[in-house]
């Protein structure tokens, strides 16, 4: 039994659009802070960092949808696509700020950084892997690709791992923040191989606990 009441069907569509609006608010607020001098002495770097951080958070939320349903009965499956796309948008904004504002669209510097700095190399690989997931995140490709679509979207797991590693290598000082995000991703990835045994156990327990019909 779900512990969170389900929304009426007529609110499903509006609630998804509301999620997009709410999900983009951190980017708008961070931009405002940067433009108004609220991001410190290096607003571009801080803006870039915040966008990357929110990208990682939305990846975590995307990965959390299935465990939340399995373990707590919170069914947010209809929001998973929006959460995944928000993660992609933030990764794209993170990359754009780095390339356009941080490096001034200097392509030589861009390619040099990609080749020289491992965390940027990892970030670029993750961005490249996210592109086909974002492009195919619609009903047309779900029908068109079938099982291949499911296999393709399993890339989110190595992408999440790469994103966590990118974040860890990029931070200049050791704080608890990256470890919290990395721990969250590690737990969510660890749940994946345990899911099928857990669901079998849950089903068996439900069968045992369900009342048997009385025999006459």
UniProtKB/TrEMBL annotation:
GO terms for molecular function: electron transfer activity; FMN binding; heme binding; metal ion binding; oxidoreductase activity, acting on diphenols and related substances as donors. HAMAP family: MsrQ. This is Protein-methionine-sulfoxide reductase heme-binding subunit MsrQ. GO terms for cellular component: plasma membrane. Binds 1 FMN per subunit. Keywords: Cell membrane, Electron transport, Flavoprotein, FMN, Heme, Iron, Membrane, Metal-binding, Transmembrane, Transmembrane helix, Transport. Residues 51-162 form the Ferric oxidoreductase domain. Belongs to the MsrQ family. Its cofactor is FMN; heme b. Its main location: membrane. It is a multi-pass membrane protein. It is found in: Cell membrane; Membrane. GO terms for biological process: protein repair. Part of the MsrPQ system that repairs oxidized periplasmic proteins containing methionine sulfoxide residues (Met-O), using respiratory chain electrons. Thus protects these proteins from oxidative-stress damage caused by reactive species of oxygen and chlorine generated by the host defense mechanisms. MsrPQ is essential for the maintenance of envelope integrity under bleach stress, rescuing a wide series of structurally unrelated periplasmic proteins from methionine oxidation. InterPro entries: Fe3_Rdtase_TM_dom, MsrQ-like. It comes from Endobacterium cereale. Heterodimer of a catalytic subunit (MsrP) and a heme-binding subunit (MsrQ). The lineage of its organism: Bacteria, Pseudomonadati, Pseudomonadota, Alphaproteobacteria, Hyphomicrobiales. Pfam families: Ferric_reduct. It comes from the Bacteria.
């Amino acid at each position: 039994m779900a512990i969170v009441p389900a929304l009426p069907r007529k609110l499903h569509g509006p609630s998804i659009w509301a999620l997009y609006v709410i999900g983009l608010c951190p980017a708008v607020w961070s931009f405002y802070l940067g433009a108004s001098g609220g991001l410190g002495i290096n607003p571009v770097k801080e803006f870039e960092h915040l966008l990357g951080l929110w990208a990682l958070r939305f990846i975590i939320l995307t990965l959390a949808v299935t465990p939340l349903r399995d373990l707590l009965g919170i069914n947010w499956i209809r929001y998973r696509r929006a959460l995944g796309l928000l993660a992609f948008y933030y990764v794209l904004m993170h990359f754009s700020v780095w390339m356009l504002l941080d490096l001034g669209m200097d392509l030589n510097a861009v390619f040099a950084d990609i080749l020289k700095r491992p965390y940027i190399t990892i970030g670029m690989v993750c961005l490249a892997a996210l592109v086909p997931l974002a492009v195919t995140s619609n009903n047309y490709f779900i029908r068109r690709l079938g099982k291949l679509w499911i296999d393709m979207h399993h890339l989110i797991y190595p992408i999440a791992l790469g994103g966590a590693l990118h974040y860890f290598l990029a931070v200049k000082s050791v704080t608890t923040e990256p470890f919290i995000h990395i721990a969250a991703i590690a737990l969510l990835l660890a749940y994946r191989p345990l899911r099928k045994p857990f669901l079998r156990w849950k089903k068996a327990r439900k069968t045992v606990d369900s009342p048997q019909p009385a025999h006459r």
